[in-house]
Amino acid sequence: MPCYKIEGVTPVVHPTAYVHPTAVLIGDVHIGPNCYVGPTACLRGDFGRIILKEGANVQDTCVMHAFPGLDAVVEKDGHIGHGAILHGCIVGEDSLVGMNAVVMDGAKIAPRSIVAATAFVKAGFTCEAESLIIGSPAKVHRKLSAEEIAWKQEGTGEYQRLTKRCLATLEECEPLTKAEANRPQVDAGTTQPKQ
């Protein structure tokens, strides 16, 4: 993977974490146990510290960065959807930030909350635990149901299983020119899309 130290500070990746070879890690980045970092994600710890705690995932094309003196943190079992941008914010334990959402400096997403896809969370935003956060600018819409929290947890579990699958079997290869007979399918998982 492209991994760079700056001013002598080198990224740290726990051996049970999976970081895709096209993801970029720069400087003061800490990736904890059982984390997943997807293709072309960029975690830039060249100003503030970037922290992924145990079981967190940061999916394809996500960006994490921060101003000096601020950290960008995804707490335990945090789930960051494709294309999201986290800048100097804290995503609480067991929370989800939806695809292409933006969470700005000093914002604190409370535990077990969901930031909807494409939401724009302004600097300094705060909320109560188990909030559904939607809009641009984002606001708390309502409290999440137990079913919605369970759905989020099931999806995060799939990414934790994907971490293990990638560590065990993912390898670079050349494409085939034709599909082989009796072609196997990849493990489809168990999570169903939210309706």
UniProtKB/TrEMBL annotation:
CDD domains, per database record: LbH_paaY_like
Ranges in a coiled coil: none
Residue ranges of the TM segments: none
NCBIfam families: PaaY
Xref: InterPro entries: PaaY (IPR011974), Transf_Hexapept/Carb_Anhydrase (IPR050484), Trimer_LpxA-like_sf (IPR011004)
Protein known as: Phenylacetic acid degradation protein PaaY
Organism, scientific name: Marinospirillum insulare
